[in-house]
Design brief:
heterodimer, A: mainly alpha, 8 helices, 69% helix, globular, B: mainly alpha, 7 helices, 0% strand
Chain lengths: 147, 142
């Protein structure tokens, strides 16, 4: 369970409303693949991942990033029941996709860095702290059904 | 995970861009770390941990100066950071997990201030640099 104060919920929802979720999704996934290249292991079918530029421009990366972040966005509407909200996705990531949950933590932190990049000074330490709770909660929820 | 010549150039370029703000960035990174990862506060019970406090600003400048030293000795991090490595191993004994929290907080600080200069490649090089510094600082732990 994620415990955000009302102020933190306000910060999270307010700032989320200011970003282009589709674009931030593509950028976040792209940066994950650039900064932690071993994460490319899940994306053999994505084509050209041979350089930072190739990764950031890759249409499959952008499309998948958009999918991932829209799912995360749904999570923001159910902060009181992240485990329930992500139960099926958790099973999928374990049983079919075989993704080490450490990758959810990496992606969550890249998202935080990207939010800082886009929002600048508005992404205050307090705002970041609220988002750290959210990304940790989502990562834990996605790992919850692993066996 | 070794720093390539490109990584070294990227890290130096970021440090040049940050210029005289590096000390303040150090303080901001600590503010972000203490708020985002409250367990890190356990090492600073002797500090005023109010965000922006004089204690935090002074410590931030210390951290920034050490990182600047590292940036100026990228070809020999173990040598340049040897005394700090001893300090962290024998006196401070900060659990290794915390270096990741500070590195992440430094990345967020730089990303929020550097705008377009914080490209994916620079992001990657910085992450590697902080990881290498962390490894050196924990290298004598046992």
């Amino acid at each position: 369970m994620v415990h955000l104060t009302d102020a933190e919920k306000g910060l999270v929802n307010g700032l989320w409303g200011k970003i282009n979720v589709d674009e931030v999704g593509g950028e976040t996934l792209g940066r994950l693949l650039v900064v932690y290249p071993w994460t490319q292991r899940f994306f053999d079918s994505f084509g050209n991942l041979s350089s930072a530029a190739a990764i950031m421009d890759n249409p499959k990366v952008k499309a998948h990033g958009k999918k991932v972040l829209n799912s995360f966005s749904d999570g923001l509407k159910h902060l009181d029941d992240l485990k329930g909200t992500f139960a099926q996705l958790s099973e999928l990531h374990c049983d079919k996709l075989h993704v080490d949950p450490e990758n959810f933590r990496l992606l969550g932190n890249v998202l935080v860095v990207v939010l800082g990049h886009h929002l600048g000074a508005e992404f205050t330490p307090q705002a970041q702290a609220a988002f750290q709770k959210v990304v940790a909660g989502v990562a834990n929820a996605l790992a919850h059904k692993y066996h | 995970m070794v720093l390539s010549p490109n990584d070294k150039a990227n890290v130096k370029a970021v440090w040049d861009k940050a210029g005289g703000n590096i000390g303040a960035f150090g303080g901001e990174a600590l503010d972000r770390m203490f708020l985002g990862f409250p367990t890190t506060k356990t090492y600073f019970s002797h500090f005023d941990l109010t965000p922006g406090s004089k204690d935090i600003q002074a410590q931030g400048k210390k951290v920034a100066d050490a990182l600047t030293l590292a940036v100026n000795h990228l070809d020999d991090l173990p040598g340049a950071l040897s005394k700090l490595s001893d300090l962290h191993a024998h006196k401070l004994r900060v659990d290794p997990v915390n270096f990741k929290f500070l590195s992440h907080s430094l990345l967020v600080t730089l990303s929020s201030h550097l705008g377009n200069d914080f490209t994916p490649s620079f992001h990657a090089s910085l992450d590697k640099f902080f990881s290498n510094v962390s490894t050196v600082l924990t290298s004598k732990y046992r």
